[in-house]
Amino acid sequence: MSITSDSADPEAPAGPRQIPVLAVAALGFIAVSVTLLLLGRLAIDHQVAIGRQEFEPGIGWFGQWVRWDGNWYYRIAHNGYSFTAGEQRAVAFWPSYPMSIRGLTLLTHDEYDAGLIITWLSGFVTITLLARWCQDRMTRMASIAAVITLLLFPYAWYMQWSVYGDALFAACAIGAFLLLERDKTVLAGLLGAFAAAGRP
User: Fold this and answer.
1) pLDDT tens profile 25-72
2) Is the pLDDT reported for residue 5 higher than 90?
3) Domain assignment of residue 27, yes or no
4) Which of 7, 40, 110, 187 is the most buried (most CB within 10 A)?
5) Where are the beta strands (DSSP E) in 126-180?
6) Any domain includes 7
């Protein structure tokens, strides 16, 4: 004669399966990325149609995202740091991000492509690490709210398609905290140092 508990009853009704917070973070990031890419494409097509000279036909799907400080990161990755008195200086930009671009350029053969890849991957890592960090100390709904808030924050596009160092910095900083909380002090210190050397 076997004894079974009610909790193990195969006939007991199962509750609705909840989507894991990490899945919400990953799928949300991808959805926002695709939306931004499409909106950016529409915006560029409109600017070209009305004759805005700074937006040229053939700029491509990603060209509209490579602007402003992205060009400084390109120059540093391509030529290194330089100083010219009386002019804007590359030394204002910290080295972790441009040096990462330089390393990946060995595979992509283009600094802008490398920058876009690093930013997108770092943004994906940032949102998933944030979800993990929230899960350790918050309810499921609070964790999802934190993830969605970051994804929809107006400046969150800096973690999507821009050639900016923000996403890499955030990924390293959050990763360092997670490692430290798990007593991986050496790895946390190294990752924290890399984050500090890439402050946007």
Assistant:
1) 899 999 998 888 888 777 776 665 666 555 554 456 676 677 777 788
2) no
3) yes
4) 40
5) none
6) no
In contact, 47 and 55? CB cutoff 8 Å: yes
Residue 87 CA, distance from chain mean position = 31
Q: Is residue 113 part of a domain?
A: yes
| Structural domain harbouring 153 | 19-81+89-196
Residue among 189, 182, 193, 175 nearest 125 (CA): 175
The neighbour count for residue 80, using CB atoms within 10 Å, is 12
- Number of structural domains in the chain: 1
Q: Tell me how crowded residue 194 is: count the other CB atoms within 10 A of its CB.
A: 20
Determine which of 11-25, 92-106, 165-179 has the lowest per-residue pLDDT on average.
11-25
Residue 61 lies in a domain: yes
Q: Tokens standing for 71?
A: 């060009």
Q: Are 36 and 160 in contact (CB under 8 A)?
A: yes
